[in-house]
């Protein structure tokens, strides 16, 4: 098969991914092999490729962790799926099922999980191997291009809104309107909240409005803290902008007793314990979460803004992502 393969980490400008032949995957017990229909491109892919997260435990490595395709082969002990089923996989290849997090419904925090595009090969390829217990049937009325991003930005956004605790009549500020942020706007609206979308990049403002934001603020042109504090602040803030400034603005914009949910790495500044705020981290979601996301998408209640590129263009697409020139999500197709 063909795949985009990372042999050694390096700047994306150097073209570290090579489009070349790779060995076809074979399913082990409890596993399946799918023919990839689409694979979303995530900023964390860029971080892995450039070595920002350290050296991957597996090299050479095929990146990619939000994948939709059709099953072509079944391993032993797989009874819940059949060849030809269209399925999707989110970042976790597997979880241990035994740690305190798995046993308390928080498998997204599993201490011994394996992840596509990090510890095992992912979806920047024509075929991919996965565990049957960790793939999900995709509703027929969602295309591959629209479905693939549901398995990372979709479930990540859904989990973040759930962690924020917002509900009808509450106001939430969402910092960062990219691949995850534009999905977060939609899930927050479904929760009944009023949504203020905050972005440094003016090209994302129309996307926020299109997704249903009640208010759009460009932080490079106006102070979002001042704007959001006019009515006493927001009930919750969700941060997907990879910026210490955005985290700080979120904390300052959130009212007393409010919640700040952070889905990026960064530093906590300007935290005033007298405000009694709660700060939470959020990471992807559980299998239960993705089933709920797929149900909402099948009903037409959320959708992905996605643009398709051929698999061999992955280096070019990731350069665009690095330069903040991507509107919504990019999806690679073999």
Polypeptide structure, described:
By secondary structure, the chain is α/β, with parallel strands linked by helices. The chain folds into 2 domains: 2-152 and 284-333, Quinone Oxidoreductase, Chain A, domain 1; 155-281, NAD(P)-binding Rossmann-like Domain (Rossmann fold), CATH 3.40.50. 22% of the residues lie in helices and 27% in strands. It is built from 9 helices and 17 strands. It has helices at 43-49, 144-147, 153-164, 181-190, 205-210, 224-228, 244-253, 287-298, 314-322, and strands at residues 2-6, 17-21, 31-41, 67-74, 86-89, 92-94, 114-115, 127-131, 135-137, 171-175, 194-199, 215-218, 234-239, 254-262, 278-281, 306-310, 329-333. Strands 3, 4, 5, 8, 9, 16 and 17 form a 7-stranded mixed sheet that branches. Strands 12-11-10-13-14-15 form a 6-stranded parallel sheet, sandwiched between helices. Helix 9 links the parallel strand 16 and strand 17. Helix 3 packs across helix 4 (181-190). The longest helix is centred in the middle third of the chain and has 12 residues, at 153-164. It starts with a strand and ends with a strand. The mean pLDDT is 95.
How many helices? The count is: 9
> What is the percentage of strand-forming residues?
25-35%
The helical percent reads 10-25%
In the residues, how many domains can be counted? 2
For this structure, the CATH topology of the largest domain is Quinone Oxidoreductase, Chain A, domain 1
| Oligomer status | single chain
Principal-axes shape call = globular
* Largest sheet geometry: 7 strands, mixed
């Amino acid at each position: 098969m063909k795949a985009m393969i990372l042999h050694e980490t390096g700047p994306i400008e150097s073209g570290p991914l090579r489009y070349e032949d790779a060995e076809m995957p074979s399913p082990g017990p409890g596993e399946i092999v799918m023919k990839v229909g689409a694979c979303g491109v995530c900023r964390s892919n860029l971080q892995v490729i450039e070595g920002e997260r350290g050296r991957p435990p597996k090299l050479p490595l095929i990146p990619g962790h939000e994948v939709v395709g059709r099953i072509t082969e079944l391993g032993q002990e797989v009874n819940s799926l059949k060849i030809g089923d269209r399925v999707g996989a989110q970042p976790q290849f597997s979880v241990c099922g035994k740690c305190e997090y798995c046993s308390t419904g928080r498998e997204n925090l599993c201490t011994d999980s394996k992840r596509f595009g990090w510890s095992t090969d992912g979806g920047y390829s024509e075929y991919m191997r996965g565990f049957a217990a960790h793939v999900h049937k995709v509703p027929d009325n969602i295309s591959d291009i629209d479905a693939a991003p549901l398995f990372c930005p979709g479930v990540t956004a859904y989990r973040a809104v759930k962690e924020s605790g917002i509900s009808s009549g509450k106001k939430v500020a969402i910092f960062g309107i990219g691949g995850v942020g534009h999905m977060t706007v939609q899930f927050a609206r479904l929760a009944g909240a009023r949504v203020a979308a905050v972005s440094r990049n003016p090209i994302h403002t129309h996307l926020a409005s299109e997704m249903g934001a009640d208010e759009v603020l460009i932080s490079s042109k106006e102070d979002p803290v001042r704007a959001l504090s006019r009515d006493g602040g927001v009930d919750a803030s969700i941060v997907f902008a990879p910026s210490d400034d955005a985290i700080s603005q979120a904390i300052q914009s959130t009212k007393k007793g409010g919640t700040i949910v952070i889905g990026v790495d960064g530093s906590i500044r300007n935290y005033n314990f007298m405000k009694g705020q709660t700060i939470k981290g959020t990471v992807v979601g559980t299998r239960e979460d993705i089933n709920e996301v797929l149900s909402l998408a099948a009903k037409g209640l959320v959708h992905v803004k996605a643009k398709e590129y051929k698999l061999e263009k992955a280096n070019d697409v990731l350069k665009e992502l690095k330069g903040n020139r991507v509107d919504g999500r990019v999806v690679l197709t073999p």
